[in-house]
Design goal:
Elements: H1 11-23, E1 25-27, H2 28-39, H3 43-56, E2 59-64, E3 67-72, H4 76-90, H5 111-126
Antiparallel strand pairs: 1-3, 2-3
Helix pairs in contact: 1-2, 2-3, 4-5
Length: 127
C-alpha cells in the first residue's frame, strides 16, 4: 500500500477508508449505501469525494465491467499511527508517543494491528 499522503483525511474520508479497510474493495454505490445517512450525501457527492481521495492517494480505483471499484491505498496502522502522533505533538504537546495499549479495545484494530501500531508509535518517538 502506498503511504504518500501528507494530510490527515477528513472525517468523511476516514469513514470511507474504514469501510474499505473492512471490506477491502467496494463500488461507489456500495459506499454510498453505507454512509449516505451519516453524511446526508447524494450518490454524486460520494463519487466526487472518492475522486478527490483518489487524487490524494488515499484510494485506488479499478474499472470492472463499467463500474469503478475502490480500494484503500494507505495502510490502516500507518495512517492511524501518523494521525495519533500528529495529534499527540500538535494538540497535546507530548514529547513521547502514547502507548498503543490505550487502543487495545478498539473495534477497528485487531490484536496484531495494536502490536504493529506500538511499533509505528515507537518509531515516531525515536525520531
Amino acid at each position: 500500500m502506498s503511504e504518500r499522503i501528507s494530510d490527515n483525511p477528513t472525517k468523511p474520508e476516514l469513514a470511507i477508508l474504514k469501510l474499505l479497510w473492512r471490506s477491502k474493495e467496494m463500488s461507489a454505490r456500495e459506499i454510498h449505501t453505507q454512509i449516505a445517512d451519516d453524511f446526508g450525501w447524494s450518490y454524486s457527492t460520494v463519487r466526487t469525494v472518492l475522486e478527490r481521495m483518489s487524487d490524494k492517494g488515499l484510494v485506488s480505483k479499478t474499472p470492472v465491467d463499467g463500474v469503478n471499484i475502490y480500494e484503500a491505498t494507505v495502510g490502516k496502522v500507518a495512517l492511524l499511527g501518523r494521525m495519533i502522533s500528529d495529534f499527540s505533538q500538535r494538540v497535546l504537546e507530548l514529547d513521547a508517543a502514547p502507548t498503543a495499549a490505550f487502543f487495545a479495545q478498539s473495534k477497528l484494530l485487531s490484536e496484531d494491528e495494536v502490536v504493529e501500531l506500538e511499533d509505528v508509535l515507537s518509531e515516531w518517538e525515536d525520531e
